[in-house]
């Protein structure tokens, strides 16, 4: 059983979204004791020069303006740290992730906070967590040469230390909706609660 689930919905569609339907079904199967929900449909602020300046200022030297610039990032990271399991709805837009999801990754991938650099290379600091990617696409097959969304999410989560990653896919819906639905059913059935 998952104690705390961080559910992230990235589809711009709040109604009729396959990735949201998948995250609903997966969340019901996991039956977490607590769910933190983050809906990215309205977008997130993109990192900018102020954010970068604040991020690279040592914490002890940060001004109120620095802390304000990093406040959302800090909140998103606290949600990540609090979760045992991440459930991320990943609709494939133009072969990649939606802008809101990319902005979320940019806000949470912070050197010294969610990863660090060592002599042996980068080391993720968010170990011991599980992630489930609920991937939905109209024509892109998951893990095909034209799927840049799924490998990107696996890489970024792994970069931050989250390496237990499962994929539930409802891909190629516009090519074969029946097969797409069957793949999703099989993937959800195979998830451990």
UniProtKB/TrEMBL annotation:
Residues involved in FMN binding: 11, 17-19
Catalytic activity: N,N-dimethyl-1,4-phenylenediamine + anthranilate + 2 NAD(+) = 2-(4-dimethylaminophenyl)diazenylbenzoate + 2 NADH + 2 H(+); 2 a quinone + NADH + H(+) = 2 a 1,4-benzosemiquinone + NAD(+)
Cofactor binding note: Binds 1 FMN per subunit.
Essential cofactor(s): FMN
Keyword terms of this UniProt record: Flavoprotein, FMN, NAD, Oxidoreductase
Flavodoxin-like fold domain location: 5-179
EC number in record: 1.6.5.-, 1.7.1.17
Subunit structure: Homodimer.
Record's function text: Quinone reductase that provides resistance to thiol-specific stress caused by electrophilic quinones. Also exhibits azoreductase activity. Catalyzes the reductive cleavage of the azo bond in aromatic azo compounds to the corresponding amines.
Similarity section: Belongs to the azoreductase type 1 family.
Protein known as: FMN dependent NADH:quinone oxidoreductase
Gene: azoR
């Amino acid at each position: 059983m998952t104690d705390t689930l961080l559910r992230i919905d990235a589809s711009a569609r709040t109604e009729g979204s396959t990735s949201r339907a998948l995250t609903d079904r997966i969340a019901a199967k996991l039956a977490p004791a607590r769910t933190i929900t983050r809906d990215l449909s309205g977008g997130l602020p993109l990192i900018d020069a102020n954010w970068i300046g604040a991020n690279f200022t040592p914490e002890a030297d940060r001004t109120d303006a620095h802390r304000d610039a990093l406040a959302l990032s800090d909140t998103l990271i606290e949600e990540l740290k609090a979760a045992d399991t991440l459930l991320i709805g990943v609709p494939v837009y133009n072969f990649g992730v939606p802008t809101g999801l990319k902005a979320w990754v940019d806000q949470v991938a912070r050197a010294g906070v969610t990863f660090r650099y060592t002599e042996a290379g980068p080391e993720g600091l968010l170990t011991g967590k599980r992630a489930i990617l609920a991937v939905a696409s109209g024509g892109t097959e998951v893990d095909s040469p034209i799927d840049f969304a799924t490998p990107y999410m696996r890489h970024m989560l792994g970069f931050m230390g989250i390496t237990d990653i499962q994929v539930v896919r409802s891909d190629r819906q516009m090519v074969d909706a029946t097969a797409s639905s069957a793949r999703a059913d099989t993937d959800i059935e195979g998830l451990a609660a």
